[in-house]
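Note to self: the last two entries modelled the partners one at a time, which told us nothing about the interface. This time every component goes in together.
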Amino acid sequence: MNNEKWNVTFIVTRKKGDEAPRTQSFTIDVDPDEYVLDGIERVWAFHDRSLVFRHACHHSTCGACGMRVNGVEKLTCITPIRSVTHDGGTLRVEPLRNFPIISDLVVDMGEMYARMDDARSPQVASVDQSNLGYEKDPEDGGDYERLVDCIECGCCVSACPIALTTPAYIGPVVLAGAHQALEETGAPELLDYVDQENGVWRCHSAYECTAVCPSNVDPAWRIMNLRGRVIGRRISKLFIRA
Amino acid sequence: MQNESTPVNFWRWFDPRNRSIGTWAFILNRITALGLTLYLFIHLIVLGKLAQGPQAYDDFVTLAHTPVVKFGEMLVIAGGLIHGLNGIRIAMTSFNIGTAYQKQIFAGLMVIAVIGMIIFGWKMFGA
Amino acid sequence: MIGIRSAPKSREGAWLWFFKIAAGVFIVILLAVHFIINHLVAPNGLLSYDDVLRYYQVPVVPVMEVIFLVFVVAHALVGLRSIVLDLNPSTIILRWLDRLFMLAGAGFIAYGIWLVVVIVQKGSGL
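The predicted structure of the combined assembly is written out below.
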């Protein structure tokens, strides 16, 4: 790693208590191959200990560090500074949209987690069920389990234009979780759960959720797939006793 | 709460900055929907002139040849093409057809829409 | 903010959504027909009163136009309702808006049918 040093101004959203959100600028020296989260940590460590933000694993597994960087939802632990600004430039860091702000860059995800429980969103799924097309199945052909792709970072909810104006919409992460649960268990009650006005029928095909997902969950495809399954089940219920 | 139906959030529906192509589809669909609904209302009322007899309708047709009205009609054609073709994309992906290529499908359909607008523009203002 | 989880009322919304999409597809086809026939096939592109009246004497024309109108009005109003839903209205407001939409829809369709009947009647005297 070379010792390149950039001088970058972080424009960070601050909000404490009931005050209106405002921005505060911090100009710091960074290594451009470090990540945005490293920069935020440096701001906290050396400039303002009152800055509040979430971070944990630092390698895109926990989903804690989701924020908006220059207006786009990203996992800040894997977003190199080099990719979002230049030497002498600025870097806007804001909390995720569509969640209540608790403090500065931390938002309240309680409702989202509660709904994921309702959707029985699993954390673990069988490998052959949840592997993406390009991932190889285990060579010995055995049954394995893995952590599901969704890391519950909330980026998809932040990007969704429906979630923007209505908290009632179940949301892409929850619908994706329900879909994952359905793939694992086949439980028809899950189809009932998503088959409501605030569920799968609310999506307006903006596909922003899939565009910003850092973990290949593809919520938009899952929502469309759920629609097909709901309709299929409703048609078959016309002919077969449930 | 940050996700309530405030005026700020309402206008954010139409703000494509920092968003990807899907948001353009969402915005265009919403704007053309509102425009076409307004046009529907106007169109139905104007057609009422047919019940008022030949003078009323033929006078309106003369008015319809003025540049302002023609431009308005161009907007309607544009809105109809954009909304209809994007609607086809929505219908397709909603039944899981082409979901993986929805961005390309949208781009392709919008190209068709632009071609359609050019053809109509030429027919209305050129020929 | 635990507690505002929407109580799921299963099967609500599916029919309206499906109708909107199906109507939309139907409209794309009918609109093409409507436009081509009215402005490219019909004599003089229906730009005079006499042409319109003569044209509406062909039986399939008023029937097609009324069907077209019903689907367009329904699609437009269900679509407007979707936009309103995204603004998270209260149950009471939504209930009144539903009534307003249904009234407006019925009104537009009734007006359209009346207009078509008038045109056909006037044309039969030609």
